[in-house]
Amino acid sequence: MPWEKVLTVNQSLCEAQKTAHEPKHKSIDAARQLWEKSVPKAMSLAEVLEVCRRCQDIGPFVFNNRNTFAAISKTLVEDWARCLPSVEAQIMRTTVSHYVAGQIGKKELLQVLRHAEIRWQAAPEAVEERVAVSNPAMTMGNDQ
User: Fold this and answer.
1) In terms of pTM, does the model score above 0.90?
2) Which of 25, 67, 79, 119 is 20 to 30 A from 4 in CA distance terms?
3) How far is the CA of 69 from the CAs of 9, 24, 104, 122, 129, in angstroms?
4) Other C-beta atoms within 10 Å of 70: how many?
5) Whole-angstrom Cα distance, residue 80 to residue 138?
6) Angle between helices 28-38 and 3-16 (to 10 degrees)
7) Per-residue pLDDT, 83
């Protein structure tokens, strides 16, 4: 996901709340550089979520830092969440967004990811097929 998409997510959230989309001049470049440095790397899902959390911690926007990166984190797991029962999918979305927003720790995140991984391993063909159909750029080995 390019940095411009991060800006678009923040702008949309700000518009919905009738607040200004305002980057913080002191921190926007640091967050952008971290994001852009990380995008081309092959990373695990936990590593990608850590980048989202670190960018959120930097606070590149005046409004909606947590909401911006939490929304992005939910988008990142959506294809895999569709392969889970609805309650487990909601737990997955909530857990990743709460982790990115700093509301839960890495231990809790990893527990939920481990549980989902067990589910995905039980039916890998179905997961790979759903992920490939909904997002051809993603594969199970490259979950960024």
Assistant:
1) no
2) 79
3) 9, 15, 14, 30, 27
4) 26
5) 11
6) 130
7) 87
CB 139 within 8 A of CB 128: yes
Provide the residue ranges of all domains of the chain, joining segments of one domain with +: 3-134
Closest Cα to residue 30, out of 65, 1, 64?
A: 65
- Please give the torsion angle defined by the CA atoms of residues 73, 79, 84 and 89, in that order, rounded to the nearest 10 degrees: 30
Distance separating alpha carbons of residues 6 and 10, to the nearest angstrom: 6
The torsion angles phi and psi of 90, rounded to 5 degrees, stand at: -65, -40
Phi and psi at residue 67, to the nearest 5°: -60, -40
